[in-house]
């Protein structure tokens, strides 16, 4: 069954986390994604967190790289070399989508800026992925997910009250911004179908982080409120946080008066169904008292019992799982959240793209590539002659031998 983006050629100059997460989704949807890498070491994420011993293995690649680079082919190009830039320009001019996450101005200095590529191909979707954006006082400042967790204020509301700021445990801004990039590219492709015209597309970690923080910013702009850390609690309603169980913890969320009534009835009506807790505004006012009363009940029950009782009562509830418990939970597989990739002759489980399409399902056709593994194959497919490829190799386009 063809993918939704079959026939779309993506030239991917991006590396590390955010933009590669987005281009992987384009590949899952059927696009031919060519990953352009620096010849000596490639995408630096290939080696993140690896031990010296692991790095010595043939084709060594880190879990983050394996998680974010399936359905791509790798070409090694030295953009510091005129021959490498010439090859990159020709590939760019023949692509439907170009993605990069270099700092502002870098691609233009290599002769690969939007104006130059559009002059050769007016249909190109030219996607630039920055840290803080193309303009402004921070445009030339390098940053990653953690930097934007700090800059955006996300870190200031994460953690326990009265304690130092805490990093969100996953690269939430990277992955959210990667999804924003996919949405923008798909919208631009749809526009091109109607008009024949490509366009420049821009996103950034800054914009992705602001989107994650949107209602906190709006609240501040509206009345000056600056939220502080609340642990697992949510300031919008009570109960809405983790509660202790005899063997772990569970999240209980009962924001409406009706759901709170069902929650109290399912657990301990004599202790929880009190007049002062029946209205949401009163529960907010009496937050500490309600949390203490509910916690005294939950800690006498197991996680399994709490989940069973509350889910039967149609109350939002979830056990606090470990990484392993969440990854191996049957619901993830049943919902289509897993794919299997063959890497160096062994199966590897990975998380699928976060959606399902009935008519053009996402699929896995290729494992994450070895550095430069498809250089000659790609160039021959894109119209380069064999003698040309040999000449470019001698000129150092693909790195020094």
Properties at a glance:
Rossmann fold, alpha/beta, 41% helix, 11 strands, 6-stranded parallel β-sheet, 401 residues
Briefly summarize what is shown.
The chain has 401 residues and is an alpha/beta fold.
| Structural class by SSE content | alpha/beta
Number of structural units classed as domains: 2
Helix coverage percent: 40-55%
CATH class of the largest domain, please? Alpha Beta
Instruction: Tell me the series of helices and strands, N- to C-terminal.
Output: EHEHHEHEHHEHHEHHEEHHHHHEHHEEHH
Main sheet specs: 6 strands, parallel
Which second-level CATH architecture of the largest domain applies? 3-Layer(aba) Sandwich
What best-fitting shape do the alpha-carbon axes yield?
elongated
**How many beta-strand segments?**
11
The Rg value, from CA coordinates, equals 25 Å
Catalogue the unreliable spans.
none
Record the strand order, biggest sheet: 3-2-1-4-5-6
Q: Kindly estimate the percentage of residues that lie in beta strands according to DSSP.
A: 5-15%
Helical segment count: 19
Please describe what this structure looks like.
The chain is an alpha/beta fold. The protein folds into two domains: 264 residues, Crotonobetainyl-coa:carnitine coa-transferase, domain 1 (Rossmann fold); 82 residues, formyl-coa transferase, domain 3 (2-Layer Sandwich). Helices cover 41% and strands 15% of the residues. It contains 19 helices and eleven strands. It has a six-stranded parallel beta sheet with strand order 3-2-1-4-5-6, with helices on both faces. Strand 10 and strand 11 form a beta hairpin. The longest helix has 24 residues. It is elongated and about 85 Å long. The two termini are 41 Å apart. The relative contact order is 0.14.
């Amino acid at each position: 069954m063809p993918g939704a983006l079959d026939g779309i050629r993506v030239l991917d100059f991006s590396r590390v986390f955010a933009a590669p997460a987005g281009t992987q989704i384009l590949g899952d949807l059927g696009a031919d994604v060519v990953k352009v890498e620096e010849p000596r070491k490639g995408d630096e994420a290939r080696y993140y967190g690896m031990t010296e011993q692991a790095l010595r293995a043939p084709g060594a690649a880190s879990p983050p790289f394996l998680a974010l680079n399936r359905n791509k082919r790798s070409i090694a190009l030295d953009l510091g070399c005129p021959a490498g830039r010439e090859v990159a320009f020709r590939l760019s001019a023949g692509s439907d989508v170009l993605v990069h996450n270099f700092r502002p101005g870098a691609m233009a200095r290599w002769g690969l800026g939007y104006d130059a590529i559009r002059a050769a191909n007016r249909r190109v979707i030219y996607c630039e992925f920055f840290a803080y954006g193309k303009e402004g006082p921070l445009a030339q400042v390098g940053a990653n997910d953690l930097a934007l967790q700090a800059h955006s204020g996300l870190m200031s509301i994460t953690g326990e009250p009265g304690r130092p700021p805490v990093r969100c445990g996953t690269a939430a801004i990277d992955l959210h911004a990667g999804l924003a990039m996919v949405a923008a590219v798909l919208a631009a492709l749809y526009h091109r179908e109607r008009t024949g015209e490509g366009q420049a597309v821009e996103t950034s970690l800054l914009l992705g982080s602001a989107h994650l923080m949107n209602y906190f910013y709006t609240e501040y702009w509206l009345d000056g409120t600056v939220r502080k850390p609340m642990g697992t609690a949510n300031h919008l309603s009570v109960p809405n946080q983790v509660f202790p169980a005899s063997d772990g913890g569970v999240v209980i969320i009962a924001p409406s008066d009706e759901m709170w009534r069902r929650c109290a009835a399912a657990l301990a009506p004599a202790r929880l169904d009190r007049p002062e807790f029946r209205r949401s505004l009163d529960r907010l006012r009496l937050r500490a008292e309600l949390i203490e009363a509910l916690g005294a009940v939950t800690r006498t029950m197991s996680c399994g019992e709490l989940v069973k009782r509350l889910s039967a009562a149609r109350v939002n509830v979830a056990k606090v799982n470990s990484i392993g418990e969440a990854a191996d939970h049957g619901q993830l597989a049943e919902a289509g959240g897993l794919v299997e990739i063959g890497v160096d002759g062994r199966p590897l489980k990975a998380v699928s793209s976060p959606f399902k399409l009935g008519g053009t399902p996402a699929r896995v056709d290729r494992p994450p590539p070895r550095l430069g593994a498809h250089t000659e194959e790609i160039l021959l497919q894109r119209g380069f002659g064999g003698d040309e490829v040999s000449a470019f190799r001698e000129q150092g386009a693909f790195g020094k031998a």
